[in-house]
Amino acid sequence: MDAERKTQLQALHGDLQQLNAAIDAEDHALAAAIVLEHDQRLRQYLEYFGPDAALTALLQEQHAVTERMSQLRDHAALQLRQERQSSRAASAYQQAGALG
Question: Does residue 41 contact residue 11 with C-beta atoms inside 8 Å?
Fold first, then answer.
């Protein structure tokens, strides 16, 4: 059982490494698929082995990936807001020029 537990933990850590790679490649579809597979694998692990100390490092790594994804999302949202603001300003400038 210890060998199986170790194999499953390695697979879970591997999921997170693959997720980081998908994020770096901006492959959102692959990242979503990895998240779903990881979630299923983690649930199976918990059903079979239950919560244990070995999950602490995995959950810390998972938290770091989630935090990184949140930061990337926030950065993208900021860029979108700035782009919209820039577009509105350009439009207003063009309208003002047309009136003058």
Answer: yes
pTM (2 decimals)?
Answer: 0.77
Q: Would you say 61 and 13 are in contact if contact means Cβ atoms under 8 Å apart? A: yes
Q: Report residue 31: phi and psi, to 5°.
A: -60, -45
Long-range contacts of residues 2-10, Cβ cutoff 8 Å, at least 24 apart: 5/49, 5/52, 5/54, 8/41, 8/44, 8/45, 8/48, 8/49, 9/45, 9/54, 9/55, 9/58
DSSP alpha helix (H) spans, the chain: 2-24, 28-49, 55-99
pLDDT digits (tens, 9 = 90+) for 75-93: 999 999 999 888 887 787 7
Structural tokens at position 64: 């770091």
